[in-house]
Design brief:
The chain has 14 helices and 20 strands. It has an 8-stranded mixed sheet, sandwiched between helices. It has a 6-stranded mixed sheet with strand order 8-2-1-12-19-18. A 3-stranded antiparallel sheet has the order 3-7-4. By secondary structure, the protein is α+β, with helices and mostly antiparallel strands. It folds into 2 domains: 227 residues, FAD/NAD(P)-binding domain; 123 residues, 2-Layer Sandwich (D-Amino Acid Oxidase, Chain A, domain 2).
Amino acid sequence: MKTQVVIIGAGPAGTLLSLLLKRNGIESVVIERQSKAYVLGRIRAGVLESTSVEILKAAGVGGRIDSRGQAHDHVEIAWRGEDVLSIGFGRLTGKNMVAYGQTLIQEDLYEAASNENIGIVFEAADVEIHDPDSGAPFVTYKADGQAGRVDADFVAGCDGQHGVSRATIPSSVKREYENAYPFGWLGILSETPPLPGLVYANHERGFALCSQRNPMLSRYYVQCPVDDSVDDWSDDRFWSELTTRLPRSVADNIVTGPSIEKSIAPLRSYVIEPMQHGALFLAGDAAHIVPPTGAKGLNLAISDVHYLAKAMTQHFAGDTAPLENYSATALRRVWSSVRFSWWLTTLLHRFPDQSDFEQRAREEDLNYLTQSEAAQTAFAEQYVGLDL
């Protein structure tokens, strides 16, 4: 096959990129190593910045977000099992967040891609990127027992942290920044009504988070040892631990029920520089990973794709500068979100080797947030995301 852009990865980043390019008259082929059912079954992020909603709507996939998304205009932070601070980012910034699960986003994207006749090759094995710095890149793969090859002007690597795209960039031209956290998040989904807003908790037993997906689907997390297994955590143990870490005024409002999904995720921060090499451009988790504390992972992937689609469109129209500067443009927003996610994770979690001094310093940070509207505004501006 011959196309203008070959996209590796049919998750939210890759599928959204194909739609934005199509809307600008640019053809693409998408190659995905997993099955369609596998991609749709992944439980991921569910809180969107307003800029992410705008980009999705620009791609023609905003209808269900308007009808099913749950807007919220504040976040609550609890500590010491008693203090609760409410930060109204709607009031402080004029922007709201929207709870809308990634699974629903992926369904919307696949439906739109089908309507636009965008080709997606699922269950592609042995994917390889060839000659990204030659001016004539191509991608090979195997699917349905047959070898395939796609020649293109550009390759977009949207295949996540374990994909082939990141590894294709030579070590001599890339620099990788990484921070692994000494704990994980145990998360569950339950078909129960969620709390009206997000609640974060810093407790002596560890971090906790109350989130939402829709009016009858809740998402809850507790910090746990990274080597724990979900088999160590019965539903009863989880609910008991969650409510223990929350102030009584919050815990009393939680509706418990059987979990329908349960998983443990390690936390890490990661950035690769640059996010491009020759005709290869990285977007989303292929280029950066953030702990989910700040709800930035999916939103960063969407903003990457926005920048990349715009730059590619300008390139094919004759202006090559934006695509040449894609990495520098995207990394400004990436590092802002990575720093905020790292800071919020450090603020709210209990580290195995932390001292009493470090914990009191964290509590003073929380006290300062309580007392200073300027600090709350700075928090809110970073939480809702920088302007594009």
